[in-house]
Amino acid sequence: MRHGEIDEIRTLPLFAELRPENFDTLFRGAYVQNFPPQVQLIHEGDRADFLHVIIEGSVELTASWNNRDTTMATVAPISTFILAATIKDSPYLMSARTLERSRIILLPSQDVRTVFAEDAGFARAIVVELAQCYRAVVKSQKDLKLRTSQERLANYILRKDHQFGGHGHFDLPMEKKRLASYLGMTPENLSRAIKSLADFGVDVNGAQVRINNRKALEGLAKPNPLIDDPRC
Amino acid sequence: MRHGEIDEIRTLPLFAELRPENFDTLFRGAYVQNFPPQVQLIHEGDRADFLHVIIEGSVELTASWNNRDTTMATVAPISTFILAATIKDSPYLMSARTLERSRIILLPSQDVRTVFAEDAGFARAIVVELAQCYRAVVKSQKDLKLRTSQERLANYILRKDHQFGGHGHFDLPMEKKRLASYLGMTPENLSRAIKSLADFGVDVNGAQVRINNRKALEGLAKPNPLIDDPRC
DNA sequence: CGTGGCCTTGAATGTATTCAACGGGGGTGG
DNA sequence: CCACCCCCGTTGAATACATTCAAGGCCACG
C-alpha cells in the first residue's frame, strides 16, 4: 500500500475515529490490489471473507435469480462494500465486478469484526455508514415502486447532472445496457425512454446527455429529496 | 410502562448490552403508548423525533410520491423503526401507520443519539440491527427486480407459510389491498395472480390460504435463501 | 479487414394498469 | 333490528406499458 494512500484512508469517516493500535490491527492483514475491468470480485452467496474499499475505478453490484440478473448499484471511490455481510458474517447478497480498472483495499472480515467488537469509535462509524447505505436502498426502492421507467430515467439524468456540477450536460458513467438494468428496464426500453425525453428537451448522443429545458424536464421528473438527494 | 415490559425490553438484543446507567438515561424520557388502528405515527419527511419500538400490534411503513403511494414493509413485534433516521438525525423516508391496535415505545431521538455516542455496546447492537434492516431491503429489492408479480406472490405465500409454522395453510396477515401494494402490484392484478396460482395447487378463500401441492408451488416460486430467508 | 458486442428500431407478444361495474360484508345510524 | 352505505374484493374489457424476438448499423478491438 502506498504511503499517501494510507494517510488518505486514515481520513475516511469510517476509519478516522479508530484508535491507532486498532488501525494497525485492521491494516496489518489488509492488502491493496489493482484489478482490470470485468473482474468478478465477489460471488453472490459466498461467505464474506473481506470488506472491500474502493479507492479508484468503479464497481458494479449485481444480483441474480433463476437465470435473470440485475444491476443493484454502482460503487465509486471512496466507499466500502459490502459492509453488512462482513459484520453479520453472512453470505453476500450481491455479486461485485469491476467496470473499469480499479484499485481496491481488501480487509479480512475477521479483523473487521474483531476491531468492531473492541473499538467503540469504529462501531459508531460503521453505524453511520450502514445507516447511509440503508437509506440509499430505501430511496432506490421508492424510485422503483413509485415511478414509471420514463420518470426514473428523467430523475436519473437530473441527479447525475447535479452530481457532475449541474452544467446541463454530462456523459453517462456506464454503458446503456447496465444503466437500463440499474433503472429496472430492458436496453430496448431505455432506448425508447431516451427518445421520449426529447419532448422534454433532453438530447442524448451516444453517452453525451444535454438538458436543454430544465424546467420541462423537472416538470416531468418531479425530483424529491426523499428519493433523489443522496445526502438526505 | 409496565414492569414486565421493561424486563422484556431489557432482553431485546438492541438493549441487552446497554450499561445500566445508559438504559436509565434512555428510558427516563421514554413513554409507551397504545394506539388504535389506522393512526398515522410518522409522516414521511418529518424530522425523526423518536425511535419507535413496537411491542404489540402491527405497523405499516409506506412511501409516497406525486400522489402515488406504496407499502414498503410491515413491522411486527418486537422490532424498531425507523432507526436509521434517528441515528442520522435526518427526515423519515417513510410514513408509518398502525394496522391494528398497537403498543409502541417512543424513545426520544436525542437520547438515543446521546447514548449511542457514549455506549459502545449500544453502538454495536445498533450495527447488528441496521445490518439486518439493510439486508432485508436489499432482499426486497431483488424480489422486485428479478421476479414477476406471480412469482413474488408465490414466494410470499411460501415465506408466510413457513413463518406461521409450515402447516400448509395460514391466514393473510393484512388486507389484500395492502398486500398488493407491498408486492408491487394493483389489487386487481393480485386477484388475478391469486387465481393463476390455482393451477399450482394454491387455494385462497378470503384471507385463508391453503397450499395443496407444495412441490408444484415451489417449482414455480423457486425460493432462494438469498431473497426469501429473513435470517440469512 | 473481419468480428463481436452494443445500441437502436420495428413488430409481435405478454404483462400490468386503468376504467367500469357489481356483489358482499361490516359498520353506522335511523 | 333493519336499512343503508361505504369500502373491499373481484371480474371483464380496453388500454397502456414493457418485454421479447429479429434484424441491421456502428464502433472498438483483435
Structure description:
The structure is a homodimer of 232-residue chains. Chain A is α+β, with helices and mostly antiparallel strands and 232 residues long. Chain A has two domains: 3-144, Jelly Rolls; 148-228, Winged helix-like DNA-binding domain superfamily/Winged helix DNA-binding domain (Arc Repressor Mutant, subunit A, Orthogonal Bundle), CATH 1.10.10. Chain A has helices spanning 3-10, 13-16, 20-28, 83-88, 109-118, 120-146, 149-163, 176-182, 187-196, 214-221, 225-228; strands at residues 31-35, 40-42, 50-56, 59-65, 68-75, 79-81, 95-98, 102-108, 169-171, 202-205, 208-211. In chain A, strands 1-8-3-6 form a four-stranded antiparallel sheet. In chain A, a hairpin with a 2-residue loop joins β4 and β5. The first copy, chain A, is elongated, with a radius of gyration of 19 Å. The mean pLDDT of chain A is 94. The structure holds a DNA duplex (30 and 30 nucleotides).
Concise account of the structure shown:
Chain A is 47% helix and 24% strand. Chain A is an alpha+beta fold and 232 residues long. In chain A, the strands form three sheets. Chain A has a four-stranded antiparallel beta sheet with strand order 1-8-3-6. In chain A, strands 2-7-4-5 form a four-stranded antiparallel beta sheet. In chain A, strands 9-11-10 form a three-stranded antiparallel beta sheet, with helices on one face.
Q: How does the overall form of chain A come out from the CA principal axes?
A: elongated
Measured by DSSP, the beta-strand proportion of chain A falls in 15-25%
Helix-strand topology string of chain A: HHHEEEEEEHEEHHHEHHEEHH
Assembly form of the protein: homodimer
Spatial order of the strands forming the largest sheet of chain A: 1-8-3-6
How many E strands of chain A?
11
